[in-house]
Amino acid sequence: MTTPALPFISLVRIGDVSPEVCARVAEGVSRRLGLACLVSGDVAPPDFAYDERRGQHCSTRLLGRLRERAEGVRVLGVADVDLFMPVLTFVFGEAILGGRAAVVSLHRLRQTVYGLPDDPGLTLLRAEREALHELGHTFGLVHCPDYTCPMHATRSVEEIDLATGGLCRACGARISEAIRGVSGNGRVRQASPEPPSRRRRSLLSALFPFLKGQPQGDAPTKPCTPKIPDE
Fold first, then answer.
1. How far apart (Å, rounded) are the C-alpha atoms in residues 100 and 96?
2. Name one Pfam family in it (predicted).
């Protein structure tokens, strides 16, 4: 990967993930954020993050490894394994709020996990929205009360499908401001505070700004089959 002079996001393949899928996710992220997203040439193995007791990979351990990478103002890991955090049955992804690293997984974004026919296009669309969500956290965004915004907190793929693709006006303005203020070391200038009414609506989500998953004991719901068109 040739390192550009301008700030960019480095997308890292974690394990056995198709380069073509990563390229499509990188393209979508770049289009939505207006910031170059380049796929790294190497592959990060996920084995060290595997938990034998749970039969899943720990997303927090993967984040720790991604944080060590020097390239890019942000590092986005894309995996295809089942992710978890200790307090959650599973997560679609995880990010460090205001940090440099984020990770998403294709595993639970696939229709086949829920006993439905495979739909690669829908999986890719969900992956793009999840990547945008987790990267939004790294730029300081908390969960949004607008269910059509990718920054809305979701616990199922049905909720991911409700997002229209692009950030809502408020989140878009805040992330644009943060990206304009990003420096070579990846630090983000403090964005303008949210209006009090918006803060009240998103209070519960703000308590857990970087968690997206299913709480322990809750059974994941079965996704609906219709696609929501990307606008």
1. 7
2. Peptidase_M54
Q: Could you tell me the domains of the chain?
A: 8-215 (3.40.390.10)
pLDDT at residue number 162: 92
Extract the tokens encoding 169.
Answer: 């006006």
DSSP code string of 155-185? SSHHHHHHS-SSPPHHHHHHHHHHHHT--TT
Nearest in space to 156 (alpha carbons), one of 207, 228, 224, 86: 224
* pLDDT value for 44: 85
Q: What is the pLDDT, as a whole number, of residue 42? A: 83
Helix axes 19-33, 120-138, angle to 10 degrees: 50
User: Model-level pTM?
Assistant: 0.79
Cα separation, 43 vs 16, in Å, equals: 8
The pLDDT assigned to 7 comes to 85
Residues of the chain with pLDDT under 70: 1-5, 183-231
Burial class, 52, CB count within 10 angstroms (exposed 0-12 / middle 13-18 / buried 19+): exposed
